[in-house]
Design a protein that fits this description.
Mean pLDDT: 91
Radius of gyration: 28 Å
CATH superfamily of the largest domain: Reverse transcriptase/Diguanylate cyclase domain
Strand content: 15-25%
Distance between the termini: 78 Å
Helix content: 40-55%
CATH class of the largest domain: Alpha Beta
Low-confidence stretches: none
Strand order of the largest sheet: 2-1-5-4-3
Length: about 280
């Protein structure tokens, strides 16, 4: 097949394709690629794909050569997920399939086929969100909180307060009023809690009638005030018992949660309908 026919196929392909030289500069792009990145051929040729790659993904470019060498030695292509940024700021998640291409004088070029995976990522994100969210209240679930706990870093112990809340006598409420009424109360409690704890508060339904509130950028006094406001607004004349503690220097959120949980049980033992905290360190 002649080079002219190859070029026609390249241009007509519905798959976005780009050819880069040994320096990582684009030497050829097809129409589908131009449409994907929102730039013309003239704006692309002679430039690196870094010009339309998300800043957080630029490190991938520095490792492409190593990845291509590994792929070539294993006689396979290399797949990379990245994000392209169009001129209007729109971000397009893409899957790049990279294969070695022999350029002039046996130069090591790279042919990239690019698939827009925006829709796939949206589905994946919705599934991930659902797996970390309590379907009844819309709050984080236990899994979501645990993922959050290992991903966040507080440099200052005053930055966070963790509270564990348990609605008092909720089992009896369910038995008297029915589970539908109980579910409605849990939803209403979660809505009220979100308003009371504000933007820096993170609400989690830990299980049943037990909730965890993580106060970010807060201290003991501010957390106490928010919990008091919530206690005064609890629906259906219910009360809750709570334990709360300040995150200590050098510890993780899970340790603070365990301490708050013990304080919550102390509040239960002391008669319920109260909040208990530990002495400042």
């Amino acid at each position: 097949m002649e080079d002219r026919q190859y070029r026609r196929m390249f241009e007509a392909s519905p798959v976005a394709q780009a050819l880069s030289d040994e320096h990582g500069l684009l030497v050829e792009v097809n129409n589908a690629y131009c449409q994907l990145v929102g730039l013309t051929r003239e704006q692309l040729i002679g430039r690196s794909a870094t010009v339309h790659t998300h800043s957080s993904d630029l490190e991938l470019h520095s490792s492409v050569e190593d990845l291509m060498s590994a792929g070539a030695s294993a006689d396979r292509s290399v797949d990379i997920e990245a994000r392209f940024v169009r001129p209007d700021g729109e971000i397009r998640p893409v899957l790049l399939t990279l294969v070695p291409f022999t350029g002039p004088s046996d130069a090591e070029w790279t042919l990239a086929s690019v698939v827009d995976i925006t829709d796939r990522k949206a589905v994946e994100d919705s599934i991930l969100l659902a797996s970390r969210t309590d379907p009844l209240t819309g709050a984080l679930n236990r899994r979501g909180w645990l993922n959050y706990a290992v991903s966040v870093n507080f440099d200052d112990a005053r930055d966070a307060v963790v509270a564990v809340l348990d609605l008092d006598h909720f089992k009896q409420f369910n038995e008297r009023r029915g589970h539908a009424a109980g579910d409605a109360v849990l939803r209403e409690f979660a809505d009220i809690a979100r308003r009371c704890i504000g933007e820096d508060g993170l609400l989690t339904r830990w299980g049943g009638e037990e909730f965890v509130v993580t106060f970010r950028n807060s201290d003991r006094a501010r957390a106490s005030k928010a919990l008091e406001t919530l206690a005064a607004s609890t629906p259906a004349h219910l009360t809750f018992s709570a334990g709360y503690t300040v995150l200590r220097s050098g510890e993780g959120l899970r340790h603070a949660l365990d301490r708050a949980d013990l304080l919550m049980f102390q509040a239960k033992r002391e008669g319920r309908n109260r909040m208990v905290t530990d002495p400042p360190q």
